[in-house]
Amino acid sequence: MNVFVLNCGSSSLKFQIIETDAEMIEQDGDKQLAKGLIERIGSEAIITFQVGEQASVKSATPLRDHKAALAHVIKWITAPETHIAGISGLADIHAIGHRVVHGAERFKGSHLIDKAVIAGVQECIDLAPLHNPANLKGIYAATELFGPAMPQVAVFDTAFHSTLPEAAYLYAIPYQLYRRFKIRKYGFHGTSHRYIAFRYRKLTGRQRKDTNIITVHLGNGCSACAIKGGKSVDTSMGMTPLEGLMMGTRSGDIDPTVIEFLMHKEGTSMEEIFSTLNKRSGLLGISGLTNDMRDLEGEAEEHQDRRAILAIEMFCYRVKKYIGSYMAAMNGTDAICFAGGIGENGSGIRKGILGNLEWMGIELDDARNATAVRGKEMLISSDKSRVPVYVIPTNEELVLARDTVRAVKSLPFPC
Ligand code: ADP
Hints:
The chain is of the alpha/beta class.
C-alpha cells in the first residue's frame, strides 16, 4: 500500500509517501517514496519537495489555506515530471494517515476516521486549541481532494500515554476539576516514544513485557517517558506540551504563580504570557540568541557566550533530573534511549545530561558517544555501564504509515 502521511500544523503541512504493508512491516522493508514540507501557509508559502534520495527542490508560492497547500502537493505528486516510484496518479495513493495531536481520554489508539472520530477530535479542541483545528483542516482538505472513499486514519500523539496510572497523570488540584474538565497530564510525542521502545526491543531481542526503559526525545519539542513493561507509566509533557523539560522556545516546568505575578507587575495579558512561555522561553529565552541547539553550542564554543553556556547547562540539568526521577519511579531502568535532533546528534548534550552518573551505574563511552550520528541506532555507553545507553533515531512518520495499514486492514496494533 502507498500511504500518504500528513501532519498539519497551524501554518504548516508536512507529508511523506511511504510504501508499506503487513509483510514489509514484518521485514522492516517499508520504503519512503517522497516527502515534503510547506511552511507559512496563509502567505507566501515556502515549499520543499523531495523524491526518494534525490536532492530536495525548494520553491515559493502564495497558498491561502491548508486545502490550497494540499492541492499544491497533489499537483506535484501527479505531475508527469515528478516520477515518484509506483505513483502515476492519485489512484496510486491507497490510504492517508493523519497525525492528530490531542486525543484526550477518548482515543487510546489509532482509528479509521469516520464521523464519530471527527466529532471526538473536535471535542478535544479545548485541550489543544492550536493543534487539533489544524489537524482537522488536514482531514477536511484530504476528504475533499482525495474523495470521500479514501480511507483515512488518525494517529494520536497522546495515545501511547493512555496507560499512565492515575497517580502519575493527576495534578494535585481539587479532584472535581479532573472530573468536570478532565484536567490532567496527557503527554505528547507518544508516537515517537512508542517507536523508540519498539526499536529497543528489536535491537535487544527483548519482549514487550521486559521493556523497562527511559526514552528521551530531544528535538525542538522535548519530552522524556518512563516505559515499564512496554507501557508508558510517566511522561514529562502535561495537559499541553508546555510542561516538563526545557525546550527550544518552551519554558517547561514553571511555578504557575509566575503568571499571576507577571500580570500584576507588567499588566501583561494572559495570552501574551502564554505566548512568551511557548514561543520566547526555553533555549531562546535564556540565551537571548536562538532556539537552535547546534547554533548555541557554536556560540558557547567560539565566543564563550555566557548565556548560551547557561542555556545548555539548564537544558542538560533538567533532563538529568527527569531521568533520575523516572529511575526512582520505576525502581531503576534497563536502558536510556535518546532520539530527536538533539538526542541523536548532540554528543556534548548527552554527555552533559549523563555525566557524573557513574554512581547510578550510568557511564558513557566517550568514543562511542562522539561517533553516534543521526539516522543510526547505536550503543553509546561503556561496557562497564550497568545501564546501557542508546541513540535510537525516531521515525514518527513510519509509525503513522504502519498504523494506517493496520487500521485499514484490521490488523493488530503491536505497541
Ligand atoms: P523537530 O522537533 O522540529 O522535529 P528536530 O528533531 O530536527 O526538530 O531537532 C531540532 C534540534 O536538533 C535543533 O535544536 C537543532 O539545533 C538540533 N540539532 C541538530 N543537529 C545537531 C547537532 N549536531 N548537535 C546538536 N544539536 C543538533
